[in-house]
Design a protein that fits this description.
heterodimer; B: alpha+beta; seven-stranded mixed beta sheet; elongated
């Protein structure tokens, strides 16, 4: 199968190799198009964001005002902090010029003067790799003033985060770039109206942006035919957990999860049964192993199965997995990463984790299961940003699909008994 | 205008408003912690979640702009469930130490717990522990465990006080309010964060643990710390003022007041230096006497001087009623032309928010009621010179410590007679022959005119010997109502002090005048009848918010200092 985002070309990170393989061709092509034609092409391609929400990228670009007295900004989200997700890192390492070319294309389409690539703080090595690629792209005239003599100028700034999951949330990301605390902003206003420093801003995921040169090179119609019709294109799937060959695999959208697990990732060690799968990073809803038949890696199929694509970080758990331990660890993550700004997330994530720790110790109670569900329901939808939802969904889905695991771990509080488990 | 429906009722509202503002304007309260009308919207507490038709999720009323045709439900099952959830979340890590918390009784979290919470907790885990006694600045103490991270104090410091020293550190449930390194919350308005704080996280270092709020009475009054006249609540227990807090008046001080006003102005009232009774000088020493003796002495002494030898110094610290009666008695009864008052303007002491350079609460009113030399009389400079040169031999001083000025202190011994109305043993009182112990701003009825011409009422909050809380219509605390004289809450000290205008009236009538007013309200009625700036005003229509002096007639344009 052809690969577009991470093709198997040695040393593609070097600008000479990238150029020799058709690199920066898309941008030259775009220079012959009007900016809105570039946006139209992305819109027609059907590309949906790869950062987790699957929002149509071209449509998002159209929210930017055509005329603006203030500068317009693009933020490229490489914070990649969702457990189970490690795909953008591969791009930064193996194909950084694709990202840079995509940014320049997006900047051209939206009339952006400065783009910020926000890379998670722990990715020190990959920040350096991107910076090196950016320096090469600048010295070759692909970034900066009067690019390729076109009269179009745009700059790219690599911004290293300081180590907070919340800064991958787009409005916190903007606060973080501004030098502020990583607190999500209340919406509206939306970033396209008032984003970085109050200026019109678009935020796209690293992988989303990397699809843009592919679309411009090959055309929207061609792109739209790849993979699942309503969620087309190549997608990077990061497979982790109990598989023989964990890693990042590029494939068309819409492939069956079982095919990904068994053909790409080499199946389960010891040929054990799959107990559960988290399809798109730790915040997406967990699926039972026996319900995977026919479920595919695209937005519609996973929605129908009761989960979502998220960042396509597929976490596979075999039959020996202690799911109580899994959900406790996931809850600890969201508790630890909750920014603390709004009440339900700040208080609810900690409460969930404390109860789950009791289950882990064997001190859970049957009635705690409904309490967990109720707390998760009370967080979901009531918070400033989606971190609250991200904390609620794993708990909700774990209880819905693996209630027996909780019941088996719970000590029941028997009325009238002299031994009341606490 | 936008037509919106809230809970089935249709309202026409300004389309610029948010849902919470539109609801409030129409008498519908949407519970909230972090939202405040004078601060930017932060949207963090989630208490104001409401249901809006066509929106899939509940929306926060504080940041959602109204739109024509919008249908809002503030009491639907979904909203009530979300509200109860927010309350439950806020309370799980809250220490629930209401029995020892200063805020109890005026705590939004406590009030809402009764109103919007389910009444029990499902939380069975260990609470998060945080620092309990953090001094944010000289006047504000923080208990981080009680904090609900609403950020009102941070926004106030940034946006209103313009001293951005507060911030949150840490994440999630471990978030801690703190000051930036090497800074403290020490701006002139720092204590406003105490009322802004919807819980007991921020408390007053001055008032901390002083009283339960329901044990105090609260009286609507005004601050006498400068010519702004911030509206206040005076909080009294056992006839003693324990604190002053700001009272909302958009025309004067909005929701705020300065730290100095709230900490320093009531010290005089409670002071150990308060006079016990009137005093007269006998054999060179001031001794306590009864009112009849003091007044008789003043009358006989005043009679022994020529009119031109007498001067009167009114006071911009006194009420309009005091000053009006004073200038009238001086000019019409005693017959002197030498009447003026002392200004107390501290250059550069004012700021752009509230604090005025004029440190008296009533200088404009003093002029408005006629305190000025009569035709050919001496002004304040002339009076001082007259004392120094010996042409002024008798001086009558209202509630102003003129001897604070070294020139007066040097000149006063030249006088043959000095009559002083004072509440404490002031420098001027020590020079006096007759000291008439006067009620402070917190012990009498009266009006004052602020720098902008706003006429506002003072109301008695502390009872003097001649007053009774119940019979004289004072604000009453629980103890005032239910304690008896034989338990310690019923016992209190009352000062033998009288309002200046009333003592002046007695002196005038003893000198043969026929002044009829027996209450401050009657004096004000006469002022309103005679003096154009006060036309149409009375104690009822001044109400709790005051009224602007009639602009066209106001003398405010003549000489407004600061």
């Amino acid at each position: 199968m052809e690969k577009y985002i991470l093709p198997d070309i040695p040393d593609l990170h070097s600008i000479a190799v990238y150029e020799a393989n058709g690199g920066y061709k898309a941008f030259r092509k775009a220079l012959g198009m009007k900016p809105e034609e570039v946006t139209d092409e992305v819109k027609k391609s059907g590309l949906r964001g790869r950062g987790g929400a699957c929002f149509p990228t071209g449509l998002k670009w159209t929210f930017m005002p055509k005329q603006s007295a203030k500068p317009k900004y693009l933020c490229v989200n490489g914070d990649e902090a969702e457990p189970g997700t490690f795909k953008d890192r591969q791009i930064l390492e193996f194909n950084p010029h694709l990202l840079i070319e995509g940014i320049v294309l997006a900047a051209y389409a939206m009339g952006i003067t400065t783009s910020f690539v926000y890379v998670r703080g722990e990715y020190g090595k990959w920040v350096r790799m991107l910076e090196r690629a950016l320096a090469d792209a600048s010295s070759h005239g692909y970034v900066g003033d009067n690019i390729l003599g076109s009269g179009f100028s745009t700059n790219i700034v690599v911004h290293k985060g300081a180590g907070a999951y919340i800064c991958g949330e787009e409005s916190s990301l903007m606060n973080s770039i501004e030098g502020g605390r990583g607190y999500p902003r209340v919406k509206p206003p939306f970033p396209a109206q008032s984003g970085l420093w109050g200026c019109p801003t678009t935020i796209n995921n690293v992988e989303s942006i990397c699809n843009v040169p592919v679309i411009i090179n090959n055309g929207a119609e061609w792109y739209a035919k790849i993979g699942a019709p309503k969620h087309p294109g190549p997608i990077l799937v990061g497979v982790s957990g109990h598989v023989n060959k964990p890693g990042v695999y590029e494939m068309p959208t819409g492939l069956p999860l079982l095919e990904i697990i068994y053909k790409f990732a080499g199946g389960i060690p010891g040929d054990k049964r799959i107990k559960a799968v988290i399809p798109g990073g730790s915040s997406t809803m967990i699926l039972r192993g026996e319900q995977l038949e026919g479920v595919c890696m695209d937005a519609d199929s996973l929605k129908a199965a009761g989960s979502s694509v998220g960042t396509a970080g597929l976490i596979v758990m075999d039959e020996d997995t202690d799911l109580i331990q899994v959900i406790t660890r996931i809850s600890k993550f969201y508790y630890h990463e909750s920014c603390g700004q709004c009440t339900p997330c700040r208080e609810g994530t900690g409460w969930l984790w404390k109860i789950l720790q009791r289950f882990e110790r064997g001190e859970g109670r049957t009635e705690d299961i409904d309490l967990l569900m109720d707390i998760a329901n009370n967080i979901e939808g009531n918070t400033i940003c989606a971190l609250g939802d991200a904390a609620a969904w794993p708990v909700q889905s774990m209880i819905r699909r693996f209630r027996d695991e909780f019941e088996n771990r719970a000590k029941s509080l028997t009325m009238g008994s002299s031994t009341i488990a606490l | 205008m936008a037509k919106i429906t809230i809970n089935g009722k249709i309202f026409d509202v300004d389309p610029e408003l948010t849902v919470i503002q539109a609801a409030a304007q129409n008498g519908i309260e949407i519970p909230h912690f972090c939202w405040h009308p004078k601060l930017t919207v932060s949207g963090n507490c989630r208490m104001c979640l409401v249901e809006i038709e066509k929106m899939p999720k509940l929306a926060i009323a504080c940041s959602t702009r109204v739109a024509d045709g919008m249908i809002v439900k503030t009491e639907s099952d979904r909203v009530i469930k979300a509200r109860q959830a927010v309350m439950e979340f806020l309370l799980i890590n809250h220490p629930l130490d209401c029995p020892i918390c200063d805020e109890a009784g005026e705590c939004k979290l406590q009030d809402y717990s009764y109103k919007y919470s389910v009444g029990y907790s499902r939380f069975d885990e260990n609470k998060v522990h945080k620092p309990k006694r953090v001094r944010l600045g000289p006047n504000v103490m923080l208990d981080v465990e009680r904090c609900i991270m609403c950020s009102r104090c941070i926004r106030f410091s940034d946006e209103i006080a313009k001293q951005p020293v507060l911030t949150f550190t840490q994440r999630g449930t471990h978030v801690v309010l703190t000051t930036f390194p090497d800074t403290q919350l020490d701006n002139k308005y720092s204590m406003n964060v105490i009322e802004l704080c919807p819980v007991g996280a921020l408390t007053s270092t001055d008032f901390r643990f002083a009283s339960r709020v329901w044990e105090m009475s609260s009286t609507d009054s005004i601050c006498v710390g400068c010519s702004r006249g911030c509206n206040t609540h005076v909080w009294v227990r056992k006839n003693e003022i324990l604190r002053l807090t700001p009272r909302f008046n958009e025309a004067v001080n909005s929701y705020w007041m300065c730290d100095s006003g709230r900490l320093n102005t009531f010290r005089t009232v409670n002071s150990q230096e308060r006079l016990h009774s009137p005093m007269i000088r006998k054999d060179g020493v001031l001794v306590d006497v009864g009112w009849d003796e003091a007044i008789a002495r003043a009358v006989s002494d005043l009679k022994s001087f020529k009119k031109s030898e007498i001067a009167g110094i009114a006071s911009a610290f006194a009420t309009n009623e005091d000053n009006y009666v004073f200038q009238k008695v001086m000019k019409e009864v005693i017959g002197t032309k030498n009447v003026d008052y002392v200004q107390h303007v501290e250059d550069d002491a004012g700021d752009e928010l509230l604090i005025r350079a004029d440190k008296t609460p009533n200088s404009l009113g003093t002029r408005q009621v006629g305190v000025r030399p009569a035709e050919g009389g001496l002004d304040i400079t002339g009076i001082l010179k007259g004392i120094e040169e010996g042409s002024i031999r008798a001086l009558y001083v209202l509630e102003d410590d003129i001897a604070e000025d070294p020139r007066f202190a040097a000149a006063l011994p030249n006088l043959q007679l000095l009559i002083v109305h004072a509440s404490v043993n002031s420098k001027t009182a020590r020079f006096a022959d007759i000291v008439l112990s006067c009620s402070t701003f917190a012990e009498k009825n009266g009006t004052m005119t602020n720098f902008a011409g706003r006429v506002q009422r003072l109301r008695p909050a502390v009872a003097t010997l001649e007053q009774d809380r119940a019979k004289d219509g004072f604000a009453m605390s629980r103890w005032d109502k239910f304690a008896s004289q034989n338990d310690r809450w019923g016992r209190s000290v009352k000062k033998d002090a009288r309002p200046t205008w009333r003592v002046l009236t007695a002196i005038a009538n003893a000198l043969g005048a026929k002044l009829k007013c027996t209450t401050a309200e009657e004096v004000f009625k006469e002022i309103a009848e005679k003096l154009p700036p006060f036309k149409g005003m009375n104690y009822i229509n001044l109400g709790s918010q005051g009224a602007n002096a009639n602009a066209a007639e106001s003398v405010s344009k003549q000489k407004v200092t600061a």
